[in-house]
Amino acid sequence: MSLPFKIGVLQLSMEPLDETVHMAQACDAAGFDVFWLAEAYPWWRKHSMEARSSTAATAIIARETKRIVIAWGIISPYTRHPVQIAMEARILQEAAGEGRFLLGLGASKIFMKEIGEGEKGRDVGPATVMRESIEIIKGMLSGNEVKYQGKAFQAFAPALKSDARAPRWLPPIYVGATGPVLQRLAGAMTQGLLTASITTPKFARYSRKVMEDGAKKAGRDASQLDLGCVVIGSVGEDPRTAREGAREMAAMYLANKVQNIKGSADTLLECAGLTREEIEPIADAMEKGGRKAAARALSDSTLEKVCPIAGSPKQCIEKLEEYRAAGCTQMMLELWGDDRLEQARLFGEKVLPHFHHP
User: Fold this and answer.
1) Rounded to whole angstroms, what are the CA distances from 254 to 118, 146, 251, 266, 269?
2) Distance from chain centroid for Cα 148
3) Whole-angstrom Cα distance, residue 77 to residue 104?
4) How far is CA 161 from CA 142, 144, 156, 166, in A?
5) What is the pLDDT of residues 316-345, one digit of tens each?
6) For residue 12, is pLDDT > 80?
């Protein structure tokens, strides 16, 4: 049986808590399936935004929403020990309830760089860090005794007593990854893979194949694995204005994220038909004049290569269908532009019914 096609919204934890909660509530009311919160990092201070804890925020969001699934998309084990991640996951399990929480992990090379881990990370590689983190988190949340001695982490905990008041279910775990090693790991160990922003349909097809290769090697049913694609979104009745809403976020990602994940982003760029020479003027504009200047430096042809879900409701439906055909099962729209609360409402009224009621 094929997995259902889900459409959610993703944003970074770099905005005031009240605004983030209101956006999550708007997405809940509109009928989106998932609200993903990605953890921002201190780099955003350069552009008048502050990094906030996504685990703390999502616990509040879970209590302030009714139906929508709440997801970490992603947090990094380079900033929290896996035992701490499991402890924070317990809070989300209790705040959201069974079936309303997804646990997304990623190495987050940008965050590694920000906190001084460098390109190579610690004494072991990101794949080892991620694998051990997943094993420890699963062990802790299972309630079984944990005696773990790994290359990156150690973890020791007695078994959870039968009368302890704690959830007994394991939330779906996802891995956010751009490079093939971690993408295969996602297929081998978790519910699915989450790709980086600027994911194109071509990169979605590539990523699904890599993830499924990892699943098959591990003897798992690859058809039951999710592929989540982070894509910039902006909708409006005026297609031209709506596309402009996507320009600023596209410029920020091209200027920042792609440059920081370097080698692992080569295939991502190649699938989009982008060159580093094409990105450098956008990055220079971002450093000198901020995100508005970066948006002005982003040409129409470069914006088109990023494949945003942007324009009129009809155009957004057509683009979403392209991603579904490419093997994506979890759309993670990063809505940007004017009046995002209204955009959420318009998506719910004129886009989501096409997919929820075929």
Assistant:
1) 21, 42, 5, 13, 10
2) 28
3) 11
4) 12, 9, 15, 10
5) 999 999 999 999 999 999 999 889 999 999
6) yes
Plot region of 101 (φ>0 → left; ψ -120 to 50 → alpha; else → beta) = beta
DSSP 8-class letter at 14: -
Closest of 139, 151, 122, 127 to residue 83, by C-alpha: 139
- CB count in 10 Å sphere of residue 347: 25
**Confidence band of 112 (pLDDT split at 50, 70, 90):** low
Phi and psi for 244 in degrees, rounded to 5?
-65, -30
Position 162 scores a pLDDT of 95
For the chain, domains (ranges, CATH) are: 6-240+310-356 (3.20.20.30)
Are 111 and 185 a contacting pair, CB within 8 Å? no
Q: How far apart are CA 151 and CA 148, in angstroms?
A: 10
3-state secondary structure of 131: helix
Nearest to 222 by CA among 236, 210, 240: 210
pTM here? 0.95
What's the CA gap between 9 and 348, in Å, rounded? 12
Question: Are the beta carbons of 31 and 356 closer than 8 angstroms?
Answer: yes
- What are the DSSP calls for 187-212, one per residue? HHHSSEEEEPTT--HHHHHHHHHHHH
Say if strands 309-311 and 173-176 run parallel, antiparallel, or are unpaired.
unpaired
pLDDT tens string 277-288: 898 899 899 989
CA dist., res. 13 & res. 36, Å (int): 10
The tokens for 263 are: 């080698």
Look at residue 222 and give its three-state secondary structure.
helix
Coil, strand or helix: which one is 31? coil
- Comparing C-alpha atoms, which of 59, 62, 185 is closest to residue 133? 185
What pLDDT score does 258 carry?
A: 55
Say whether 100 sits in a helix, a strand or coil.
Answer: coil
Task: Compute the average pLDDT of residues 213-228.
Answer: 98
Phi, psi of 44 (to 5 degrees): -65, -15
